[in-house]
Amino acid sequence: MLKALCLTIVFAILLPALIVTATVALVFYVVEKEPLVRQSAPVDSGTVAAGKALLQRIVLQVESADASGTTLAVTEGELRHLAQLGSHTFARLDTDVYFDGATINSRMSLRLIPNPVGDYLNLVFQVEQSSEGINIDRLSIGPLNLPGRWLLPLIAYLADTVLQDQQASLLLASVRGFRIEGDTALLRVQPPSDVKAQFKQAVKTLQASRFPPGEQERVVQYYEYLVRLAEQGDHSGRSLSAYLTPLMVAAANRRERSSAVAENRAVIWALTIYFSYGEFETLVGDLVSSQRALVRPPSGVTLGGRRDLMAHFIYSAGITLATQQGIGIAAGEFKELLDSGNGGSGFSFADLAADRAGVQFVTTATSNEPAARRLQQGIVANNSEAAFFPDISGLAEGLSDVQFRRQYGSTQSENYRKQVALIDQRIARLPVYQGILN
Hints:
The protein has 438 residues and is of the alpha+beta class. Helices cover 53% and strands 12% of the residues. It folds into two domains: 45-194, no CATH class; 210-433, no CATH class. Strands 2-3-4-5-6 form a five-stranded antiparallel sheet. A three-stranded antiparallel sheet has the order 1-8-7. Helix 2 crosses helix 3 (76-89) and helix 7 crosses helix 9.
């Protein structure tokens, strides 16, 4: 009995050590010094337009499919466009996709933070033709080769767990077969009859889980304050600062009861939902409209004397708050690239400055308590849009796709990066960021 007890104690001590040792050894084995994908192809307006068109087509086909299902056709080029967009959105990720006979191959290189083990985590996924659903048939993590059929079911299971239903598993099971013809992948899909409702419910469930207790009440309070402010006086040519400053005064007074970060976040959500007339509730859920009726905002509110710049600032702020900083910046660039390619106003560095100003505002307002409080103080003390919105003089606007390519090439070119650096310098010199960014 004593011997068994002693062995149990020894194993209890040694087992965690063995697990840690095995984990460290595995990390040393799979992390590598060189990337498998050195650099993703640069993103231009054609890439963005193609990726957007593909996603819209897939959603439309799935939502309109009848009981017999539908066949989704995706070309090798379209998959490459999606890979490029993903790499551009996530700065440390480089990807490529290619067809090889009857398989789709995807390679990814993730740049790791500095460490003594290695600089890159390289991944390879291989999807083969099948008449029975779709699976990742081979998975490589560095030099380690693994069967991959467990990966998609695991992802679906984790999604089901988060959403607290079986929607992800049902959608995965709706793929009945997959084949390649030339440079086109054909997926035979038979989605559930209520797939549209399931998509919406999944989004709402995920949205509801993202907000801490008390968030909705704070957002609604600031939204109602905005409504009262809008009822006061003429709004023609009125700066966004006339709305932001009073809200920041209220946030500064309330932070003793919660936190500066929480109050700033609620202020930004209220501004975004109010000035988008509820459009951003599709991203964040019915934060306001479930509690009170939405009110149409005044149309004359500006930044830099322009309504479009105010919209860019607000929309980028909302995107950043809804996702991550990198995605917010990429989303701003994608919006501008789309403008240059679809007959719109063309690529505008002034609009991009407004986008990046919105991103920086949210990043600072919600990064940590000291920065959040200093931003509140800066907005209140200056009481002007010049405190948080940069000078846009001299920034090129109205560039067509041809003009953009001729002058800047792509968003990876040195000339383009110089313009972005100039914009970021102007933002960093704004009064609200003094002592925070420099």
